[in-house]
UniProtKB/TrEMBL annotation:
Reaction(s) the record says it catalyses: UDP-alpha-D-glucose + 2 NAD(+) + H2O = UDP-alpha-D-glucuronate + 2 NADH + 3 H(+)
Protein name per UniProt: UDP-glucose 6-dehydrogenase
Similarity annotation: Belongs to the UDP-glucose/GDP-mannose dehydrogenase family.
InterPro entries with a match to the protein in the record: 6-PGluconate_DH-like_C_sf, NAD(P)-bd_dom_sf, UDP-Glc/GDP-Man, UDP-Glc/GDP-Man_DH_C, UDP-Glc/GDP-Man_DH_C_sf, UDP-Glc/GDP-Man_DH_dimer, UDP-Glc/GDP-Man_DH_N, UDPGDh_AglM
Enzyme class: oxidoreductase
Amino acid sequence: MHVSIVGSGYVGTTVAACLADLGHEVVNIEIDENIVETINAGEAPIHESGLAERIADHAGTNLRATTDYAEVRETDATFLCLPTPQADDGSLDLAPMRAGAESLGRALAGKPTAEADEDDHLVVVKSTVLPGTTEGVVGPVLERESGTEIGDGIDLAMNPEFLRMGTAVRDFLEPDKVVVGATSDDAAAALRELYAPILEREDTDLVETDVREAELIKYANNAFLASKVSLVNELGNIAKEYGADAYDVLAAVGLDDRISERFMRSGLGWGGSCFPKDVAALRAGAREQGYDPDLLDAVVSINDEQPQRLVSLLEDHVSLADARVAVLGLSFKPGTDDIRKSRALDVIETLRNRGATVVAYDPVAIENVRTHHPELDTDPAVEFADSPQDALADADGAVVATDWPAFDDLEFDEMARKIVVDGRRIEVDPDELAVYEGLTW
Ligand SMILES: NC(=O)c1ccc[n+]([C@@H]2O[C@H](COP(=O)([O-])OP(=O)(O)OC[C@H]3O[C@@H](n4cnc5c(N)ncnc54)[C@H](O)[C@@H]3O)[C@@H](O)[C@H]2O)c1
Ligand SMILES: O=c1ccn([C@@H]2O[C@H](COP(=O)(O)OP(=O)(O)O[C@H]3O[C@H](CO)[C@@H](O)[C@H](O)[C@H]3O)[C@@H](O)[C@H]2O)c(=O)[nH]1
């Protein structure tokens, strides 16, 4: 198929490169010219395993990028992979979706469709949006701007994305499920065709449902996972009070296959570009519907407290005023340079508020912190190190904030007789350290 992808961020770039890899003809429509140039130069605009190779393989042949929306007219289907950020009041900010849908609608105006014996143009919302958004907001904007009706020239579907950062390419190509909420049989059939090589996999389920349910499945999925992590963090906090090792306890609990051992790592809590904003949007949406999501409120407050707890644990052993503290890891999880809502940034802020000097290291995310957090880049009490060893040298204490595999092999010799608070339970052997406070709260 000939596919256009609107928005070339983490999702749009991954989807585009993977669909190109599956043999489709793909064009990315993106407002950021730097991203467009990067993709057309055959390079990846983000750090994601397996992405750069795919872009290098397909750029210039069946993958390219442009700022020009008119190119959607040459395609059969358009995926909207636009941001759906959190507004200041926690609710879902639909401004980027509206703007993208307007530009798309205008570009589709007058495109030959059914009457000219052409198929309807399929528009697929891939962004995470609350129930009612695809049919109640995106559809009407498209109709208004294109002068074409949904079901009579434009087909509409919702196809949420479940990929994780760090494993985005693999998750997209080998998903547990593909969820399709279509407004017509043609739309559902087109998506089945597009995803055929993925749907042939034994381990991938196809869920065909209505649009509203497809929208809600995405939020329910993320709410469930965020709640699981907050629950293991609460159990971890309780374990710490009893002097028990949370990881041993949770490993045993996870043997119950109703629970599973996955997503059971207690520590600094959840961050990233999805869980925080999606849980916030679901809570705000539920309240708007007249329902108080008490459990999700608690899930968030437990998560908010974890960085403070970690720093307090360090403070039990190190007087933080004027201390030099190494922070290992800045990205919100390993395998990505994404620092959105990274718990490491909360740790740094807390350490700074308590008077400590921070020396931070991350294998790939330092540049993003410098660019997106100028207040840290210009803070004389925040330094960035070239290696974990440099960060640890002369430090009075250290925090492991991201579980990068490279940290497993770290020699903590420099830290002998000092405190390392491991916020992610990396594999370092506590016995190798003179003093080691494994984080098991
Ligand atoms: N990041 C993830 O892991 C992930 C996974 C599943 C679903 N999602 C959802 O997918 C959506 C996109 O997320 P993301 O992380 O890729 O966002 P992102 O911010 O990384 O990328 C969005 C891109 O859209 C571009 N853009 C903004 N307005 C535009 C417009 N009018 N026209 C063209 N391009 C425009 C931006 O420049 C940016 O490059 C969100 O709804 C998110 O919740 C994200
Ligand atoms: O046992 C665990 C597992 C995760 N985390 C933290 O939880 C956050 C989110 O992790 P993860 O889910 O792996 O990353 P994301 O890339 O944000 O992916 C989530 O958000 C995406 C965007 O909606 C969805 O597509 C994915 O299915 C969903 O897992 C990170 O800060 C992790 O460190 C823990 O603290 N303990």
